[in-house]
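Run log, item B.
One chain of 239 residues. Sequence copied directly from the ordering sheet:
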Amino acid sequence: MNRTRQQRVLAFVYRWLMERYGPQGWWPLVACDGVNPTKTGAIKGYHPGDYTYPRTDDQRFEICVGAILTQNTAWTNVEKALGNLQRAGRLSLSALAATPVEMLRELIRPAGYYNQKAAYLQNLVAFLMAHEPGDITREALLTCKGIGNETADSILLYAFARPEFVIDAYTKRIFLALGLCDARSSYMRMKQLVESAIPPDVVVYQEYHALLVEHAKHHYRKKPFGIHDPLINIVKAMK
């Protein structure tokens, strides 16, 4: 598929997904009483159609914490860990900075890999305490151990409202099925492809990423991936 057609397909896919599923209300936050509009996975903390979040420094910090906790696990597990942190009064930058590592490990245990993630959260705390929000760049985040491309882009897009598109495993599965990339395509190649097709817009990037995840929950969770995905034939038929 040539570059021009890739870009046309990406723009079409966004419109199709939005029409099918509607606004997703990401990033879920423990203080929000909204629900996941499609009722898949975790259902609490969503705010579909309300793009005013995060509204506080603590909510921004919660998103950063969630972006690390969600590595290699389902959001339902992250939700439990965040609930533990909230109930313990540890879901703020200053409170987490004062949390003994042994306590932190136990609080985040439901998210898995809790020894590693506790260390990553401590790195995150040190990083955030050393940087003003306006000084937090993608390049700077990637110097923080425990933060890779996907986590950095999630933090920038959802916590700091920067137009950085997030590529995750679900996104790559869908793009492969639609012929938008191949198995060797790197994270940055796919990110640049989307960002060249979709003008930088925080709301659109948030929704597109969330919509791809929602679509993947229906068609790309189990192999063979995408076997009943109606998008595949629609894209194939596009002139």
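Observations after the first pass:
- The chain has a mean pLDDT of 95.
- The first strand starts at residue 34 and ends at 35.
Flagged for discussion on Thursday.
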